[in-house]
Amino acid sequence: MAWFGRKSKSPPVKLSHSLATDPSSPPTRPPVNAETDPAREAEILRIGTEMLDSARNHKAGLLSAKFYQDKLMDWAMKDQNFKVQLFRFVDAFPALTTPEMVHDHLVDYMTQPGVKAPPGMDLALKAGGVAKTLAAKTISKQIKGMAGNFIAGTDAADALPMLAKLWKDGIAFSVDLLGEACVSNAEADSYQAKYLDLVENLVGTASEWPEKERLERDHLGVVPRVNVSIKVSSLSANFNPIAPESSMNEFMMRARPILDAAKRNGVLINFDMEHHAFKDLTLDTFMHACDTHDFEAGIAMQAYLKSGVEDAKRISEWAKRTGRVVTVRLVKGAYWDFETIHAEQEGWPCPVWNEKWKTDACFEQMVEVFLDHCPTTPGEGGIKLALGSHNVRSISAAISGVDKRGLPREAIELQMLHGMADQLKHAAEDMGLRVREYVPVGEMIPGMAYLVRRLLENTSNESWLKAGFLDNADTATLLAEPTGEAFSGDARDLCEVAPERHQLSHADPRVADGRPFYTEPLRDFADKAQRSAFNAAVENAVVPVVANDHTVEQGTAMVDAAHKAFPAWRDFDPVKRAEVLAIAADIMRSRRDELSGIVCKESNKVWREADADVCEAIDFCAYYARESIHLFDRTRLGRFIGELDELWYQPKGIAVVISPWNFPLAICTGMTVAALVTGNTVIVKPAEQTPGIAKVMHDILSQALERVGAPSGVLHFCPAPGETTGAALVRDPRVNVIAFTGSKAVGLNIVEAAGITPEEQTHVKRVVCEMGGKNAIIVDVSADLDEAVLGVRHSAFGFQGQKCSACSRCIVVDPEGPNGQRMQLFLERLGESTKTLVLGAPDNPNTDVSPVIDAEASGNIRKAIESARAEGLTELVGEKDFPSTGIENLIPPHVFTGVSESNTIYQKEIFGPVLAVVHASDFQEALRLANGHAYKLTGGVFTRKPTHIEESKRGFRVGNLYINRGCTGALVGRQPFGGFGMSGIGSKAGGPDYLMQFVDPRACCENTMRRGFAPEL
Ligand SMILES: Cc1cc2nc3c(=O)[nH]c(=O)nc-3n(C[C@H](O)[C@H](O)[C@H](O)COP(=O)(O)OP(=O)(O)OC[C@H]3O[C@@H](n4cnc5c(N)ncnc54)[C@H](O)[C@@H]3O)c2cc1C
What is residue 989's DSSP assignment? Predict the structure, then answer.
């Protein structure tokens, strides 16, 4: 039977519960609720059936089912391709300001391959002229209608009639301010003002409403009439678990007046729970706020987290211990898709359950913990439980827990989202429960992410509501105990199967663990243990003292030794050569944080950048080890009878590696191990600024070489001045390969020098050369500004802009001109967001921007800034916007606007924290500008228009293109890195072709026929 009165011919369904990764793996056990108690189950079934009956019979009508009756939703649920494109369009919709743009984007999304628009919409897509405007208006109305289902008004005042009506109908509320990324202090201040407004002013109006005993009292006393939900991250643009103390302080600075006002006005403040990365910090911040401020406090906690039960115990024990009473709104969690995707991308263990029943089971287990800690008398500390769920099974299980403990039902509260499950709200009310609606208010743009989350949740096959409203699941299914028996999927985390899943490299049983390569996961600084270990390592790191004093003669002696060692290394077992890299990777892994500490101290990299540098070095070792040995296996070409055609490679000879200071471990390691593993002997001349970490790398590789019994003289370390010893090494006629990364001037000089072939030289030198970039990011009209602002900011100012991949030109599309609304909004957000960056020493985890590499670099950057000023450019952000740190060579981020192609900062690579913002009137002009530079390294595009994504792929001619993300941070094997034009010659580092540059191919044709007979015949 269909419980919610929607007729359907489809048979009852079973809730599907798994995100299987590999069906061959063993089934998992439920995390909790291992033992079924038949009496308890019968009770849950009884309560659940009562609630479902009541919901079915309620006059509240079909309000909640309305969502599923919407034609668009109906079509979306039948067609996954359409659903994806529709939701993407909905996401972009608020950025589309004219009917033409709406129509244009709609057509674009709905004509993507495999998408079939529903009847009616297909006609609208073909519309022209006036009909086009009409079609755009129709779809706009539909989307606004959809949003209106879930969003109660543009602000609290707008939502007041709705809140009053709810109250009249016997339903309480919690107001939530819509908003996603808070990217600047200015935005955090604005959120603070809005929260204060709610806390100060809602009470006045609400106090005029009639009394409702059930909504205003529980078994312990008064329940506040006004309840406001806040997002912790909205009150601080620097809310970051890497620096918990400063994050908490900054939050408290803005929260304090809100909490005081809440106390004065008797308002309950609920801390919403956001992404997993913020979970521990949010819990700590909440407990700190409660310890230091007397206010009615609540917090949301998520059952989809594997840590759910542990989290529940932690907060419950704290409440008991401190005597504090707080409300916990227990939810399953709104970011399941995000958490799953994010963990997979980072290679981290997934923090959320991968099967729905486990989330449900965890919810029930957490309920038990909270009910065990529910205060029974006023004055006793503990947890008051609010259930944030629309799932009748989950709710019934909690109610039965309340009954079992002899608690009154008013001891719990039921909370549901605005626009969802209205029949259930009324059914719960009929059962004597206190029901509260979570009411989001706000504008469309910040509201869109919330809307998309609701759309995803409601259309998910895992949704209990969908099963009830749309799929007509039967009572037994809807109220079934969440156990694993029927739905066992793969318990293994995606990160455990990542190497096989992604196949980023060859796999060979003779190399390392025999599995394909997978990128070394970065440290998760939200994890306290990892953070503390890293902190200690940075503190204790000692940079080896290395003088750059090797003379030309010493360099020449190294070439002599390398020359001598070459034949033995050339003929050394390629598997053992690969083993050297695998051993080096293992040593680096075991010393990871220490190496990061050295990088941090020697090159001024902040924590995350230093960690990434070390991971990349490990990756180069692990990747090239796996990619090398097949080169030396003879590959048979064809299957000709009587003819054996084979191809293989041999090492070139002596390689000189000249590495830069900006990735002092990663790039130095990458070039060195590529040359080594392919059988070349190597002389490493590191950047003069960072010889310390290069020495550590050399020592690690030497240790690995020794372990496999490599001949001596294979690897040499030559810390020396580039102009003398470096130049001599490059010019030595015995050198075969020069692998260089650095400035264009030096790179071109090397190319020129390598082209000279003295009489005695027996080969032409190969130069692998990566030089630089003047990289552009395009911000299109449909860009998601939350993402674009942070993406541009990070790409421009990460490691002070001292990356060849850094963004130094930002091209903003605004058809209204350089003073158009879009341009202004983007500039305002980017400017404010940039001003929020924290300047400081690199070893302070809070620091975003630390000193540039040395005084010479600092002088050059300052000259570039001066020339921008002299050319009359507008300094949107500069020195004036940051407190003075007194730290030498620390140059604050600079953003110049009004830049055109002729300006020096548009043309010249600066290699520092200086960004030029340029206007383009349309996407084509933006592409032309982006391409209009001799450097061709990286590029970025923020757009939500499918054809612009396609045009970028075709026409944005750079080595590495990034769409809807920042343009730095390429990963080995995943985003092979390198450019063309003036950015360099050679193939991509960390890509399948890179090693080919260090070898020469050889082919052999053997006639295997003897007197007319061949072995194959
Ligand atoms: C009043 C209220 C306040 C809320 N506040 C927050 C908040 O602060 N933070 C927050 O994150 N959410 C919050 N939510 C959103 C809430 O997390 C979702 O609405 C809720 O998860 C839906 O659960 P359900 O029991 O109603 O539905 P069900 O259909 O029973 O459960 C759906 C949930 O199951 C989980 N899930 C789905 N697929 C899988 C899978 N394959 N494996 C494991 N788990 C899966 C997801 O969490 C999904 O949302 C709030 C909800 C309410 C009602």
Answer: B
